[in-house]
Every structure is written in structure tokens, then in C-alpha cells.
Write a structure and sequence with these properties.
Elements: H1 2-8, H2 10-36, E1 39-48, H3 50-58, E2 68-75, E3 78-85, H4 86-89, E4 99-104, E5 112-113, H5 120-147, H6 171-176, H7 179-184
Antiparallel strand pairs: 1-2, 1-4, 2-3, 4-5
Helix pairs in contact: 2-5
């Protein structure tokens, strides 16, 4: 059963490794972009949030804002227009007239982002759980056996005292010995 769980949990281990790898990649990419991309200010020209309109129609609060809109910004004297979902730029609130600081890719000024990791707190919790599972899995199924000290069930250093040597004279005597007495002979008949 132990072996079944050791190898049966490998898909979960693989999933946790992928989660950790993706999380570390997102954090490193974001950090590199913040240090190498210059900043500019975008001005929101128009914005609409269909989820907000639906929430107002139902009379409930909007728990998942998803604005879409148009924004303008200037890079090196040239005006650019951006259109899309606010989440693509890294914002959840866009109102006409808002000015938002964003980073832009110097090789492609059309690529802009606020570089805010939306969902970072939830992602951090998921990464922490994945890391905790991996640590427990490798300790329980792989390292624990290597790190375990000799206990009373172990044979110690393999030295046999004279009282433990038991050599039966015939095959019938061998069959009548208990398991512990057979073990003490170390397989010698």
C-alpha cells in the first residue's frame, strides 16, 4: 500500500511542480520587466463594464469587475492607442479620464502593463500549499527511510552473539522453529 501511494501520487507531485514553476516564472518575469521597462501614463478615453451593468440589473454587488476600454499614451513623442480588457493591462477599474501609470516594452511600445500581478495573494496561497505538499511527500515517501535511525526491530550492526546461533540437526527441527529463531540463524541450515 505504501508503494501504491508513493507512485500513485506522482501526478499530484507533477502538478505541484508545474504550479511552483509557473509561479516562480511569473514573479521573475514581472521583476525583470519592472527593472527594464520604462514607465508612461495612459489616459482612459472610454470604458464599459458589462459585469457592472449586470450586477446593477440584479441588484447585487459586482464581485468580478471586468472593464473593457480604450486608452491613449505617448512614448517618445508618438501617440499610441490601446484597446482591450483592463485585466490585459493589469487593472480592474477603468473610468474615462483616469490616468494610470504603466510600463511599456521599449522594443514594442504597443505592449503595456501595470505589472500588477492580479490574484497574487491567491496565487501565493496555492504556491505555499504546493510547496508544503512537495516537502511532505519527499520527506515521507523518500527521505524518511534514509534518515531513520536503527530501532529495536533492526538487527543493529549485524554481529551475532553465541546464544543467537541456532543450527537444527534435521529438517523437521527447522520446520518447528519460530520465525524469530529462524531469523537468528541468518538463513544457514
Amino acid at each position: 500500500m505504501f508503494t501504491l501511494f508513493r507512485y500513485g501520487l506522482l501526478p499530484v507531485v507533477l502538478y505541484c511542480v508545474v504550479v511552483l514553476t509557473a509561479g516562480v516564472d511569473a514573479i521573475l518575469t514581472n521583476t525583470v520587466r519592472k527593472s527594464t521597462w520604462p514607465q508612461t501614463v495612459v489616459t482612459v478615453m472610454q470604458s464599459q463594464d458589462f459585469s457592472q451593468a449586470l450586477a446593477e440589473l440584479r441588484g447585487t454587488p459586482n464581485t468580478f469587475p471586468d472593464p473593457r476600454g480604450t486608452a491613449r499614451y505617448v512614448v517618445d513623442g508618438k501617440t499610441y492607442t490601446w484597446q482591450g480588457r483592463g485585466r490585459e493591462m493589469g487593472v480592474t477599474v477603468m473610468k474615462p479620464g483616469d490616468q494610470i501609470k504603466v510600463y511599456y516594452n521599449p522594443q514594442n511600445p504597443l505592449e503595456i502593463s501595470s505589472l500588477v500581478l492580479l490574484g497574487a495573494s491567491t496565487g501565493s496561497i496555492i504556491m505555499a500549499v504546493a510547496l508544503a505538499f512537495l516537502v511532505f511527500y519527499f520527506w515521507f515517501f523518500w527521505l524518511r527511510g534514509f534518515l531513520r535511525r536503527s530501532g529495536p526491530d533492526d538487527f543493529g550492526d549485524g554481529v551475532v552473539g553465541l546464544s543467537e546461533i541456532n543450527t537444527p540437526a534435521s529438517e523437521n527441527q527447522w520446520k518447528n522453529l519460530s520465525t524469530g529463531e529462524r531469523r537468528a540463524t541468518f538463513g544457514k541450515r
